[in-house]
Amino acid sequence: MFILGNFIYSVAHLLEALITILYWLVIVRALISWVNPDPFNPIVQFLYKTTDPILAPIKKFLPQFGPVDISPIVAFFVLYFLKLFLVSSLVGLAMRLRF
Fold first, then answer.
1. Which residues are bridge partners to 68 per DSSP?
2. Phi then psi for 69, rounded to 5 degrees?
3. Residue 34 lies in a domain
4. In whole angstroms, what is the distance from residue 49 CA to residue 85 CA?
5. Secondary structure in 3-state letters for the chain
6. CA–CA distances in Å: residue 6 to residues 79, 94, 98
7. N or C: which end of the chain has fewer CB within 10 A?
């Protein structure tokens, strides 16, 4: 069973890295939205393409607060919760399967 435990442990750490990358991309997108970026810039297009699948569903459910978009804040908390709950649960499961 230790092989399954090692596999789950590896998946947990890959998931943690992915969540951390998404976390920073959401923060960068929120910061760059303050300066009216060029939509044809490849970096801006990459940010929009990677964060839109996360932010678009959140924007549907949140009410509009004028010009302020709070969807990055909600996404930040959701990603943080997933990192704390899901990753630590997978690591705990992996540790129990290793021994």
1. 65
2. -105, 115
3. yes
4. 26
5. CHHHHHHHHHHHHHHHHHHHHHHHHHHHHHHHHHHCCCCCCHHHHHHHHHHHHHHHHHHHHCCCECCECCHHHHHHHHHHHHHHHHHHHHHHHHHHHHC
6. 24, 6, 7
7. C
**Is residue 41 situated within a structural domain?**
yes
pTM above 0.70, yes or no: yes
Residue 81 within a domain: yes
Is 90 exceeded by the pLDDT of residue 69? no
Count of the separate structural domains present in the chain: 1
Query: Residue 65: beta bridge partners?
Result: 68
How many residues in the chain? 99
Assess if residue 12 is contained within a domain: no
Task: Convert the pLDDT of each residue in 2-56 to its tens digit.
Answer: 899 999 999 999 999 999 999 999 999 999 988 888 889 999 999 999 999 999 9
